[in-house]
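Our consortium's second objective concerns turning raw sequence data into structural hypotheses that experimental partners can test. To show how far this objective has progressed, the report includes one record in full. It was chosen at random from the queue rather than selected for favorable results. The single chain below, 281 residues long, was entered without modification.
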Amino acid sequence: MVCRQFFKKNTVTFANFKNIKTIMMKHFTLWLTAIVFLFVSCSKTGNEIDEPQFEIEQSMSSIRELDNVTFSISTSGVNGDVYIKGWYINGALESTNNYFDKMFKNPGTYTIRMEVYHSGNKTSSVEKTVVVSALPSYNVYIKTFEVLKYNELYKFSGSTGSFSMKNYFAIEELDPTGMPEILLQAPETTENVGVNFFKSFGWQFNEKGYKLKVYQTGNVYPKSQTYHTNFVIYGANAWFSTPYAVINEYKIDLNKYRTLKPTTITEVVGPMELKLTLSWE
């Protein structure tokens, strides 16, 4: 009787055995986790850090054509100093400073890439794609350009009589560095003129004409200019074979015409009366 009671009290049931097994497995898992953590911790030296992270930041979230945007770098987990190797826009080097300002003169998608030296002699890079939206604008085509009057013929005559005057003009605009660049040179034209009389001369553009972009609002221009384009007019005395000289410049500003959109413009610029014929789209 006593033996039966002993075995009855101390018999391990199957359910109890499962509970004991579960508890042992939990303790084993905790013990194994602690061993792994201790091994990883001990394997690091005091100078080691997590993998460094770099991110390109921009001063405005939404970029439009002609906006001036600042790009900079943010870092985390960097051991030591960070040195900018270069900022690149669509693969072309833009700057080697810690940050740079950029005005996008054309809408589109641009890839910004930044490369840095860090943690001794390590190199890392990160890229970001930005989308530049277009400002509403008109396409304006210059179809013809004429010189109707010129009041300084005496500078070329060499006498009071008639002479042959030759002329041409060049379209000059700013390149990406802000320096003047000749984009088109018109053919030479020759007219018989005199100090007391003048015969108009001009040029007609091929196809649709010379294209300009005119923004619908704001006092802004493409290429950071204060005008849309510049016609530089040259003249010389054909009889005396004198060298060409600049006789006038016509910096064309079409912002003041964008409400009415005229097809003909006549303006007095310096000693000349000039005429343009246009089409607007």
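The partners drew two points from this record. Confidence is low (pLDDT under 50) at residues 1-18, 34-49. The domain at 53-133 is CATH 2.60.40.10 (Immunoglobulin-like). Both points have been shared with the crystallography group to help prioritize constructs.
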